[in-house]
C-alpha cells in the first residue's frame, strides 16, 4: 500500500534511506559518502523545503520511500530508496508508477549518482532520458541544493 508520509514517519523514512544507501558505499566518492547517509535534520529540512514523501508499506512495515518536490516549472523525484531485502521486488516500480500517475502533466527530473548504474537503468525503463553533462550541471545548479563535488559526480534524467 502506498501512502503520503508526514514528519511523524521520519524515523521510519530514515531507516529505509540509510539502509538502502549502504549500496552507495564504495560506489560514490568517499568525500560524498557518510554514515548515516541522511540525518534527521537533513530530512526535516527536506520536508520544510516542500518535499512530499510517499511510502510503500508491506505487512505494516515501511519498505520503500520516494518523494516529489514541485519547483517552478518542474517536479523533482527525490529520495527514492527501498530496504535492501526488498530491492528488486517491485517496490520502487510501484512508487514511481504512483508518482508518475499523480504528476502526469509536468516535466519530471531525477538526479542520481553517475556510478549508480542500477538507478539510471531503473529510470530509463520508465522513459526517463539521461541528460548530457552540460545539461546535468545546469539542471543540478538550477533545481537542487547540493555541493559542487556531488554535482561533479551526478547525472540527471528527464521525462
* CATH secondary-structure class: Alpha Beta
CATH superfamily: Gcn5-related N-acetyltransferase (GNAT)
Query: What percentage of residues falls in helices of 4 or more residues?
Result: 25-40%
Low-confidence region ranges: none
How far is the first residue's CA from the last residue's CA?
Answer: 25 Å
- CATH-scheme architecture: 3-Layer(aba) Sandwich
> Mind summarizing the main beta sheet?
7 strands, mixed
Q: Order of helices and strands, N to C? A: EHHEEEHEHEHHE
Q: With helices defined by DSSP (H or I, 4 residues minimum), what is the helix count? A: 6
Number of domains: 1
- Structural class computed from helices and strand pairing: alpha+beta
% residues in beta strands: 25-35%
Q: Tell me the number of strands.
A: 7
The overall average pLDDT, rounded, is 92
Q: What is the third-level CATH name, the topology? A: Aminopeptidase
**Order of adjacent strands in the largest pleated sheet:** 1-2-3-4-5-7-6
What overall geometry do the principal axes of the alpha carbons give? globular
- Radius of gyration of CA atoms, rounded to a whole number: 15 Å
